[in-house]
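CORE FACILITY INTAKE
Project code: CF-77B
Contact: R.S. (postdoc)
Sample description: multi-component assembly, two entities in total
Requested service: structural model of the whole complex
Turnaround: standard
Below are the sequence entries exactly as provided by the requester. Do not edit them.
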Amino acid sequence: MSQGPVLELRGINKSFGAVQVLHDVAFSVYSGEVTALVGDNGAGKSTLVKCIGGIHPIDAGDYFFEGEKVHVSGPRDAADLGVEIVYQDLALCDNLDIVQNMFLGRERKSGLVLDEATMEEMAAKTLDGLSVRTVTSLRQYVASLSGGQRQTVAIAKAVLWNSKVVILDEPTAALGVAQTAQVLELVRRLADNGLAVVLISHNMNDVFAVSDRIAALYLGRMAAQVKTSEVTHSQVVELITAGRSGELGIKNGNGAAS
Amino acid sequence: MMRAGPSQEEIRKHNLGTLLRHVHLGGPTSRAELTSLMGLNRSTIMALTADLTAAGLVREELPKDTGKAGRPSLVVRPESSRVYVLAFDVGVDRLAAARVGLGGVILDRRVALRQRGSFDMPQVVAILAGFARQMLRKTRPDTICVGAAAAFCGAVRKSDGVVRIGPNIGLEEMPFGEELSGKLALGLPVNVGNDANLGALAEHTRGIGLGCRDLVYLHGDVGIGGGIVVNGQLLGGFAGYGGEVGHMIVNPGGRPCACGSRGCLEAEVGERALMEHAGRGGGEAVGRDGVRSVVDAADRGDVVAQEALHGVGNWLGLGVANLVNIFNPEMVIFGGTLREMYLGSAAQVRSQINTGTLGASREHLRLRTSGLGDDAPLLGAAELAFGKVLADPLDVLSRQTS
């Protein structure tokens, strides 16, 4: 994809009290691509994602969506733009079925009653579009699903709303090998279908297996944003652990990202 | 002698085949779309579909709901449940047979596990022919079988379908297609192709590589097979043995390979190498389960398994890097057990590719896992079997029904 980024942040600063968590962070994501967001624990990945999702207001910096400067002051704003986040806890309700979960809080109505038929059809279409074959019935309770299936439902829920950017927080953590493979393929398919996907992961194999770009955060600064085809495993590990690797990364600790 | 261009009859045959191929590969297609796809006028398309409909290869229907104004164009659908082929897949650990309908739909299938060890051709042929008979017994009388083909884990001679060598099942010079054809007794020849070649064909026509004109498909079974598609055509080589990337030497003087050489890609990356490096040689789990058990152990922090995957990933990356430099593919697809191996060692694979290839060659390279999974060789065999009916639809049909 040679077009500009669908979502771009520039000079983002964010502090919690006296602690500055994000320093002048720039971050771009592109349609049709998987951008891996990597960094050590406490590097600011979750904070950055919550700023994108409108959960944390940013202290300073610019938020561009499809080239336009926007103000995101809450999760609704982000959802209206087409930005969806799938958190690690997945936020699914065990006591509801798949369709009910996918439409939770945004149910379709026809008149006064819920339009179950339309919702089920939309859910089926979405899962079908993602070539999901692991789920047998849409009226299964989420409690009965495996970890990989839950992740699939959570991702499908994010995709359902014609979203343009989907952010996945460690989608393969706590999954077995077979289910990890399925989720990684699903992540790749989302991007191949034209979505911009942000993948937060600690697993370098997952990152290299599906990403097109890698953005490495180091102590609240964006150490580097690189194409996955231009770096090696050890360079990325250095960026994560030291903030720099050869020509890449933060120069002399002055905080300027390359 | 010079020929004065194709005759009317040849043009018609060609057009019928092309139209059928569009519907076979693209699914239900409206007449209007066919008109623009084929660059023919509407009355010609109408005549062609009428011929194919009369032959029972396609049927025409009104589309459900176009949402547009005006009279909707009729949609041409393949007669998937009526016209079918038999497809077979002979892997090291698995024998599969399927009845695949026009349009690439698997209508019925049978799978048996194969014990490793010496290859007993009469037994394998008997199992596959038995599967075919079971499936044929369940068909309706108005259905018609238009071809048969098999994917085989060995090097296959293009001209007569003889398997020349299958190093991982220990066989040489075996007229497999002829034997299976005889046992089936349907009066149909059984075309045979290399499993990875056919996997490449399937991924190219209906899998993850749809729309990619240049791709490399790597198939992990016990060994490593390869299929290379260049400008939309499968690279066959002079006699059909092209694409044997598993025997590309990546480590001169390295591990011995079943082919007799040393340091072949499959000797360094194949299942045996991974299992032995992981200290599980001769273990209980083989095939996909074996590979998964190593990836799983590595994921849980088993250092030996991690080292094994790193090593294998490095050699795999080196092999892919060579292929990328030579063929400049748009996509490299990891199928069979290589799916698990790639996902479990992608950091090494990519690092090797990123350092071992020309920047320009890898610029637009996409690395993907198989879109068809274990069915890739089987569906490729089906495509091979459909070849004849797509080349000359009416002739094949008239011969089969007579």
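Facility notes:
- Residues 219 and 335 of chain B are 5 Å apart (CA to CA).
- Chain B touches chain A at residues 292, 295-296, 299, 339-340, 342-351, 353-355, 359, 362-363, 365, 367-369 (CB under 8 Å).
Invoice: internal transfer
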